[in-house]
Design a protein that fits this description.
With 143 residues, the chain is α+β, with helices and mostly antiparallel strands. It contains three helices and four strands. The chain has a single domain, classed as Holliday junction resolvase RusA (60s Ribosomal Protein L30, Chain: A), CATH 3.30.1330.70. The protein has helices at residues 24-48, 77-83, 85-93, and strands spanning 4-9, 61-69, 109-112, 119-126.
Length: 143
């Protein structure tokens, strides 16, 4: 099954980091900005992949993230995943997935890029019943 792929310009604010001591209003603003960026990326991908026959919403999914950053130190992977929660919620709000609660999140890949080229590349892959959402092989489910 063909994956659904989209790009998000920029990277999430450090205010979303679970270790951040940002004021709650700054966190709310950062979440809204991330949600809007994911929404824009999803809309562009829908327009670009209009002829593709996706049957949304998907329920059994793996969500892959390629994080292109300009930080001197690579972000901590589990904190980075937590920072993206508001963006993953946009996938459910926009009908790509039924719920992000049961999604599988393979390790985030990081690549350092020049300042101004920061972005996230998000790939959502679906699995049929009995298939592994990460690789598509049969994994002994009910199907």
């Amino acid at each position: 099954m063909k994956p659904f792929r989209f790009e998000v310009e920029g990277v999430p604010s450090f205010d979303l980091n679970p270790n951040s001591r940002a004021h709650f209003r700054k966190k709310i603003a950062a979440k809204q900005k991330l949600s809007e960026a994911f929404y824009e990326g999803i809309c562009v991908a829908f327009a670009d992949q209009q002829g593709t026959e996706f049957e949304f919403p998907w329920s059994r999914v793996a969500i892959w993230v390629d994080w292109k950053h300009s930080f001197h130190i690579k972000p901590d992977a589990d904190n980075a995943l937590a920072m993206l929660k508001a963006g993953f919620d946009e996938l459910a709000k926009n009908g790509v997935i039924t719920d992000d609660r049961h999604a599988i999140y393979p390790p985030i890949t990081f690549e350092r890029v020049a300042k101004g080229e920061e972005r996230l590349i998000v790939t959502v892959s679906e699995a049929r019943e009995g298939e592994c959402p990460m690789c598509g092989t049969l994994c002994g489910g009910d199907g």
